Amino acid sequence: MSDSRAEPGMLRSALALGAFAGLATLVLAVVHTVTSTRIEVNRQLALRQAVSEISGALPPVPLPRPLPPRFLVCDGKRPVVLLVTGVTRGYAGNIRFLAAVSPNGTVEGVRVIEHTETPGLGDAIEAGKSDWILGFAGRPVPKGATWALQSDGGDFDGLTGATITARAVVGGVAERLSHAATLPMTCEETSS
Amino acid sequence: MSTREIAADGLWRQNPAFVQLLGLCPLLAVTTTVVNALGLALATGFVLTGSSVTVSALRRFTPDHLRLPIFVLIIATLTTVALLLMQAFAYTLYARIALFVQIIVTNCVIFGRAEAFASKRPLGQALADGLSMSAGFALALVTLGIVREVLGRGTLFADLEALFGDAARGLAIDLPGSGLLLAALPPGAFIVAGLLLALKNALTRSNE
Questions:
Q1: Which of A12, A69, A176, B165 could disulfide-pair with A8, CB 3.0 to 4.6 Å?
Q2: Is the ipTM of this complex over 0.90?
């Protein structure tokens, strides 16, 4: 039943497609190999910049990428800063944040790293859009989820037109830190 | 077609965004600032020119009934190459527009030119067309970017160092007022794009 005079048979087509696919794979493999070191360096740099915005100078140890939910930055055996990431439900989806806590239990800073809140209203939680997120710096780590907006009886400023967003961030950060930042901070001896 | 005709088509007479109405998704989504628009213009231009050149160079080896999947393969490969190069050499810019560089592969301008032009023309013409259409798309992107940044954020050329390095930092202009939020959001993008389209039509008509 095979008709060898029909338009190009399946085998020929498969070979032609395979040849193109092979060529594409080769090009991608070359470009990937040539750029991979540079890309890793850039990613590490971007992470360090984001972290040192809230934690101050970091010792020259590489940060694991992606950051685990709780990571203690150590300089030898001396704890430098505890990095905690967490997620809370905002008005329009999840809000992911990064917090830096010093070894003496003070929150050095918090930044929102991912969110989908309303532009012009809820996005004031971004450091670039308003100073609201700076209100976390300098506070001692809460012992329970005890942080609240002023309108809820606490002492955090609210956000005009974005109460739900503000409440979610304040509550979510307090909840996360009260668990993660109250564990002992000890650096492991690195084996040489 | 002469190079001049190809260039005139790409830049104005057959401008991919304002005449052919292709590539509107990235056009509207990414033009909130000039630096984002320029970054995407460069990445799209790379993929569009590269794709037109490759399709033209390989046109005698491309079986006719397989040309669509092969065009998609070429465009997708070039998009990934553009993505890797951006991550390696312009990471800050990449972080701002990563999603839109990834969807360059869906930009109809590129596929359209491969099918309608590059697959039937010699290498030199395909190169000229790729460059011209890229320039035309860049013109649309940057024009929209300027209008939306000035109206929506009240700045001009902000954050240009993400693309051109620290030397460009001084070019940012801060205008009085913080801008009209609508212009920075998608509905504003549609409205501004529509007005620019009407302007182009008026200019074209008055020349006839």
A1: A12
A2: no
